[in-house]
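User:
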Amino acid sequence: MIKPVVTEKATKLTEKLNRYTFSVSPEANKYQIKDLVEKLYGVKVVSVNTSIVRGKNKSRWTKSGLLRGKISAWKKAFVTVGEGQTIDFYSNI
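Assistant: Predicted structure:
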């Protein structure tokens, strides 16, 4: 599973460093991420950096009292593509 992360911070990384951000499966390693991005988007991947984003604790008040839960942890991949290459996330909408 791979999904692009489109936030202000990720967009700035793309504009400055030609680096794209993806949400990937926690079991995926850097080699699998590199192969998948190259197949899906047809670009040459220079490097892949990953980080684990910890899950947040969430709570809300309801009629029956306080409900507590947790959002699952996920893995974020920063993919740097070759000079002059771009990935268009909005082409298949």
